[in-house]
Specification:
The protein has about 300 residues and is an alpha/beta fold. It has two domains: about 1-175 and about 210-240 and about 280-285, 3-Layer(aba) Sandwich (Rossmann fold), CATH 3.40.50; about 180-205 and about 240-275 and about 295-309, UDP-galactose 4-epimerase, domain 1. It is built from nine helices and 13 strands. The chain has helices at about 10-20, 40-45, 90-110, 145-160, 185-195, 215-225, 245-255, 280-285, 295-309; strands at about 1-5, 25-35, 50-55, 75-80, 115-120, 165-170, 175, 200, 205-210, 210, 230-235, 240-245, 260-265. Strands 3-2-1-4-5-6-11 form a seven-stranded parallel beta sheet, sandwiched between helices. Helix 1 (about 10-20) packs across helix 6 (about 215-225) and helix 3 (about 90-110) runs parallel beside helix 4. The chain starts with a strand and ends with a helix. The model has no long low-confidence stretch (mean pLDDT about 95).
């Protein structure tokens, strides 16, 4: 049986990942959640599953994690990170603490015998670019969030390169799906579109890329199961990139809304217009992972859930 430690277990990605991994009876999941976790209802549902242990440990206690864990972890999946949305992305002290706590976690997991670390990174590590982005491209993050995500990536590979470990840094782009935060563009837009409320938007001419969360966790599961994937950084995103404006127009069509789309009513942020156009050649050539859920299918799934409620 594989002992899999997952931090950030009640996060958007975490919940979907747990639902997928728990289907395999060979997996024993050890979930690290905050002491004062706000998602108590999700925790209650998880606790009923077999092969799950829950540990209430704050990030600033990762240096003491060996006081809580008395087994040999096979795999660490690190999702936990504070301040993933604005304005906290620009909080230097908060983001530095995320980095330092994560290093403490990695050190302790390796000392306990962990042989595989799957760390979740972000497209924010690349900074602003209007080009196709591959894992080998120059990184130039323009937020403290991106800076410390990148620093953790580099430190993980530098610190543990001499050890016999499988190390993976997964750069996630724009993820959507059921249970996502209500304030994201997709979720907030669906809510307004269903009520025929006009949407005030930027010009939305930047390139964008949406991947359904279920396709993301399928990819992460491949890294969990396979031990022969080359160590390194991997972009995980949809095969389809197009103007954000096109996605929003498609969203309106799928919902069947009468809302007006008021493009240009909102200015771009001071950092500038952020485009994402990821190259996923590496993940596709090194694994059998392929995106399965179209944008239309993913949106319809969210809408159907709304209607059931």
């Amino acid at each position: 049986m594989k002992n899999i430690v997952i931090t950030g277990a009640t996060s958007f990605i975490g919940i979907h990942l747990i639902r997928r991994l728990i289907k395999d009876n060979n997996n024993k999941l050890h979930l690290i959640v905050r002491e004062n976790n706000r998602k108590k209802e999700k925790l209650k549902k998880i606790e009923k599953e077999k092969n799950i242990n829950i540990y209430k440990i704050d990030m600033n206690e990762y240096s003491k994690i060996k006081e809580y864990i008395n087994f040999k972890p096979d795999i660490l999946i690190h999702l936990s990170w504070n301040g993933t949305r604005k304005p906290q992305r620009d909080d230097e002290i908060l983001q530095e603490n995320n980095y330092l706590n994560s290093i403490d976690l990695f050190e302790n997991m390796v000392e306990l015998g962990c042989k595989k670390i799957i760390n979740i990174g972000s497209q924010a590590e690349y900074g602003i670019s209007d080009k196709i982005i591959s894992e080998d491209d120059e990184t130039s993050p323009n937020t403290w969030y991106g800076i410390y995500k990148l620093k953790l990536c580099n430190e993980m590979f530098n610190r543990f390169k001499e050890k016999d470990l499988n190390l993976y840094h997964i750069r996630v782009f724009s993820i959507y799906g059921i249970d996502d935060d209500d304030n994201t563009l997709i979720m907030s837009s669906i809510k307004k579109l269903k009520q025929n409320i006009d949407l005030e938007l930027t010009e939305s001419t930047q390139n964008w890329n949406f991947l359904n969360v279920n396709d993301l966790v399928k990819a992460i599961e491949i890294f969990v199961k396979k031990d022969d994937i080359k160590t390194g950084i991997y972009n995980i995103a949809s095969k389809e990139t197009k103007q954000l404006k096109e996605y929003i127009e498609e969203l309106k069509y799928i919902v069947g809304s009468k809302s007006n789309l008021l493009f240009g009513e909102i200015s771009y942020p001071k950092e500038g217009k952020v485009s994402i156009n990821p190259d996923i050649t590496k993940i596709q050539s090194n694994t059998q992972w392929r995106e399965e859920i179209t944008f239309e299918q993913g949106i319809k799934e969210i809408i159907n859930l709304y209607e059931e409620k």
